Amino acid sequence: MTRISTVAAPRRRAGKESQRRLAFWLLLPAAIAVFGVIVYPIIRTLIISFFEVNSALAVETPFIGIDNYLQALSSSGFWAAIGRTLYFTVVSTAIELTLGMMLALLLNARLRMRWLFRAIVVLPWAVPTIVNAAMWKGIFNAQYGSLNAALTGLGITDEYIAWLGHPFLALNMVIVADAWKTTPLVAFFLLAGLTVISPELYESAKLDRASWPRIFRSITLPMLLPSISIVLVLRTVEAFKAFDIIYAMTRGGPADGTQTIAYYTYVRAFSDQNFGMGSALSYIIVIVILILTAIYLKMLRQAETSLV
Amino acid sequence: MNRKRRNSVLLHVCAIIVAIVILLPFAWMVEASFAPQRDLVGRPMRWIPSHIDFSRYGEIFNGSEGSVGSTFRAAMVNSTVVAVAVVLIAMVVGILGAYAFARLRFPFRKVTLMIFLSTYMLPQIALLIPLYFIVNSLGLLDTTLGLILVDSSLVIPFTLWILSNYFVTIPDELEEAARIDGTSRIGALFRIILPSAKPGIFAAMMFSFLLAWDEFMYALIFTSSDAAKTLPVAISEFAGRYTTDFGLVAAGGILAALPPIVIAIAFQRYVVSGMGVGSVKG
């Protein structure tokens, strides 16, 4: 016995050594890629945010401390963009989570030709964001859009509506387009959570003659909590970063009505060529996302302990 | 029994309604790409086109140098090159890294994994300004190579996440048996892990492809000509320029949407398994 252990111990240590070395080499490519294109730039952005960097790279860049941040926080355009972003985030996430939950239950149900139904539901998720945006821009078009044609055809409205022509209406229409594409993704995420709930739980509930809403409330929902919380975090972060769909549908208009914070930052940085301000705004987004994620994670932990 | 039947009918009705809501906007775009312009802009709109008009597809496939068609065709090639290269890079780098996370014990393992994963939370816009300077100083602005580099880094955290969660589910014993027979760790990775992780690999490939095909912000900022412009950028330009000819935008959009749709439907069952491992493991 003793002999074996004395022989085995150094070998195990050597194994640990070699594991470390192997892990280092295996992770090196990923580390280089992620460090070079993500970690280093995010640090550079922080540094740039403390300078006045305008347009060309050669221009002298005086250090101005937190001036960019103060200027951003004191501008009304910034707060308007934050307000629109919060509206966009809350409304789109609520819609996508509610519809996504219903869709997930439907995807999980016994349906004839379930494969066909699933293939149809996958479709919007696969459509590129920009194509989705262009499609809805066409549907909402004031002159030839199919929404106006359908509504007047059905006698619901008398005249054509400029869906993307009014600031607040346009914001809601962008949410519709976003929900069409994203709800299926949310549904598949939740479906993945649904499929791991053990069927025995449902069977014993059925033996107790529990009603459908009660089963949903006391089995499905709590078991899905981890999936729901992940979706909530991911969707909030995504909504906060929303750029493509806004660029392609409205370019922030009309009258800045769809200018969310990511788009506002893009305009400040690249249209105004004010990279210092753009960097400061970027960091404000990063900080808000971090705070929101932390809040969600804390809420999740509390929800989990309250269940036990 | 009766109640059960009624529920089943109700479920099927719901499924049909959902399917219609999903298909209707897309069907209209398909129709708009084939309908004569006259039918689309008339009031009331003609829902069923008077005849099928292939002219937009003709313009896209045969348009001469400097036309919308040639820009679109160049973008199609660029998008394909970028997406395929990104999938290859992200898979190789992701498989190696994921194996390390799933199978090896090393210091700061959890922290390293968290750093990789948290990069997803960062908004692209927060990386854009320094990346613009870097890509510019490397002389890679307006090249597909530049896009491949930045897009790969965007995708690698995803492949690491999906694959390492998948590798963990493969029983250790399989690999150990092979190693006792004298196979090295890398040999075991290729001979044992990869074949058993097929669903995870397919899921990771599909997600990488869709992410790369969909990427817009980097492509918008880092490309300017037909040399590197990708489909999303080309489509957004179409949609801005040809506001009166939605049919042309629709035809381009459908062509751009086809590759990801085909891939997503073909690999549909891996969508759930790809997300499943992630959400179960957190």
Automatic annotation (TrEMBL), chain A:
Asked whether the keyword Transmembrane helix is assigned, the reply is yes
Keyword ATP-binding on entry: no
Q: Which InterPro entries match?
A: MetI-like, MetI-like_sf
The UniProt keyword set, sorted, is:
Cell membrane, Membrane, Transmembrane, Transmembrane helix, Transport
Task: Give the membrane topology, semicolon-separated if more than one.
Answer: Multi-pass membrane protein
| Name listed for the protein in its UniProt record | Sugar ABC transporter permease
List membrane-spanning regions: 21-43, 86-108, 115-136, 185-202, 214-234, 280-297
Location relative to the cell: Cell membrane
Q: Which PANTHER family match?
A: BLR7065 PROTEIN, SPERMIDINE_PUTRESCINE TRANSPORT SYSTEM PERMEASE PROTEIN
The record's similarity note reads: Belongs to the binding-protein-dependent transport system permease family.
Query: Residue ranges of the ABC transmembrane type-1 domain?
Result: 82-296
UniProtKB/TrEMBL annotation, chain B:
Matches recorded under InterPro entries: BP-dep_ABC_trans_perm, MetI-like, MetI-like_sf
PROSITE patterns cross-referenced by the UniProt entry: ABC_TM1 (PS50928)
Tell me which domain of life the UniProt entry assigns to the organism this sequence originates from. Answer: Bacteria
- Tell me which UniProt keywords the record has, alphabetically: Cell membrane, Membrane, Sugar transport, Transmembrane, Transmembrane helix, Transport
Q: Where is the ABC transmembrane type-1 domain?
A: 76-267
Bilayer-crossing residues are 9-30, 81-101, 113-135, 147-168, 189-213, 246-267
CDD domains found in the cross-reference section: TM_PBP2
Annotated compartments = Cell membrane
Q: How would you describe this protein's topology in the membrane?
A: Multi-pass membrane protein
Its predominant location is membrane
UniProt keyword annotation of Metal-binding present: no
Family of this protein: Belongs to the binding-protein-dependent transport system permease family. MalFG subfamily.
| Alphabetized PANTHER family for the sequence | MALTOSE TRANSPORT SYSTEM PERMEASE-RELATED, MALTOSE_MALTODEXTRIN TRANSPORT SYSTEM PERMEASE PROTEIN MALG
- What's the protein called, per UniProt? Carbohydrate ABC transporter permease
**Species name for this entry?**
Paramicrobacterium chengjingii
Lineage, broadest ranks: Bacteria, Bacillati, Actinomycetota, Actinomycetes, Micrococcales
